[in-house]
């Protein structure tokens, strides 16, 4: 089967950072399904996994953590899918990735593809959808059915992939969304997705939020890095919650959190699969829920650019665009 692989972890400018490979087609067993991959998306996590380091792989490694495709075969214990089903999923960071013609994935972290979307449109969604959904409804314990209607949420890094779907999920739950963006194109993008207010994260966000008439916000999601930590602590309401998705090597003073009895939550969408948690199937359920929301016209895809085919050249191009930090929404590749 065709695949895009690496053996060394190199700067993306190096033509050897990825190469086109011909690998053996895998066979599903147990609860695994074998997916014929039709489209993939590239995420910041891809660039972090590929980031330069001294490790050298003995055999070609395939990464990639977003895909849409068709079930080619199923393991003997599979009950959720059958051959021919169209699916979308983010996969498992501990296993071989999506940048291959065929991929094995546990059925419990796979959803039925939205019927109204193409494979390219669907591939933009799984990782970011799972991340935003878990951040809001599992970590912050917000109610997906609207019990928190009217409460405010500040989404920092709203123009990226996670923020783009996060705005829509928050709006569907009845929340008032304050999105951050710093460029005209991302400001327009987050407004188009439904943000009630937009503030510039390159300027004083505390001053901007308070100019909107809000001393504090009820909930905060940090969907970029932790440079805005102290701003978030200042803005969160007493007994409010902050959720973040990024690693940090920056200081995170906690005195302000303590004085407000505020909570901090970490979201890592690979945790369920990585640790084989008893509730792994929740990702299957949430992807199916969002697919129905999409087919009903309540949520839209967040794809912003589609490249073809899926090959080393286009994977390198996508990584370079993400590392430059100027991507809105998601970059998708389709077709081998």
TrEMBL record:
GO cellular component: cytoplasm
Keyword Membrane recorded: no
Keywords noted in UniProt: Acetylation, Cytoplasm, Metal-binding, NADP, Oxidoreductase, RNA-binding, Zinc
InterPro entries, alphabetized: ADH-like_C, ADH-like_N, ADH_Zn_typ-1, ER, GroES-like_sf, NAD(P)-bd_dom_sf, Quin_OxRdtase/zeta-crystal_CS, Zinc-ADH_QOR/CCCR
GO molecular function: oxidoreductase activity; RNA binding; zinc ion binding
Predominant subcellular localization, coarse grouping: cytoplasm
CDD domains reported for this sequence: AL_MDR
One Pfam family this sequence matches: ADH_N
Every Enoyl reductase (ER) domain range: 13-333
Cell location: Cytoplasm
Subunit structure of this chain's protein: Homotetramer.
Family membership noted in the UniProt record: Belongs to the zinc-containing alcohol dehydrogenase family. Quinone oxidoreductase subfamily.
Protein name: Zinc-type alcohol dehydrogenase-like protein
Organism per entry: Kiloniella litopenaei
């Amino acid at each position: 089967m065709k695949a895009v692989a690496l053996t060394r972890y190199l700067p993306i400018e190096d033509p050897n950072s990825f190469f086109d490979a011909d690998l053996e087609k895998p066979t599903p067993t147990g609860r695994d399904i074998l997916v014929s991959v039709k489209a993939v998306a590239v995420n910041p996590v891809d660039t972090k996994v590929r980031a330069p380091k001294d490790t050298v792989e003995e055999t070609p490694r395939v990464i990639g953590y977003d895909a849409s495709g068709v079930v080619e075969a199923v393991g003997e214990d599979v009950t959720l899918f059958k051959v021919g089903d169209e699916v979308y999923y983010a996969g498992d960071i501990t296993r071989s990735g999506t940048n291959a013609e065929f991929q094995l994935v546990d059925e419990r972290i796979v959803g039925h593809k939205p019927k109204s979307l193409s494979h390219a449109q669907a591939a933009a969604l799984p990782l970011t959808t799972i991340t935003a959904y878990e951040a809001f409804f599992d970590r912050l314990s917000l109610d997906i059915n609207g019990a928190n209607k009217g409460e405010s949420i500040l989404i920092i890094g709203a123009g990226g992939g996670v923020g783009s779907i996060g705005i829509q999920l928050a709006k569907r739950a009845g929340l008032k969304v304050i999105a951050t963006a710093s460029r005209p194109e991302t400001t327009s993008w987050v407004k188009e997705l439904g943000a009630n207010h937009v503030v510039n994260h390159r300027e004083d966000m505390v001053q901007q939020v308070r100019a909107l008439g809000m001393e504090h916000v009820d909930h905060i999601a940090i969907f970029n890095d932790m440079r805005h930590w102290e701003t978030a602590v200042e803005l969160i309401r007493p007994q409010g919650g902050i959720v973040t998705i990024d690693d940090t090597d920056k200081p995170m003073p906690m005195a302000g959190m303590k004085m407000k009895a505020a909570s901090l939550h970490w979201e890592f969408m690979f945790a369920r699969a990585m640790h084989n948690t008893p509730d792994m199937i929740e990702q299957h359920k949430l992807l199916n829920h969002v697919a129905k929301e999409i087919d009903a016209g309540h949520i839209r895809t967040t794809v912003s650019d589609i490249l073809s085919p899926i090959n080393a050249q286009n994977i390198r191009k996508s990584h370079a665009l993400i590392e430059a930090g100027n991507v809105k929404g998601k970059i998708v590749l389709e077709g081998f």
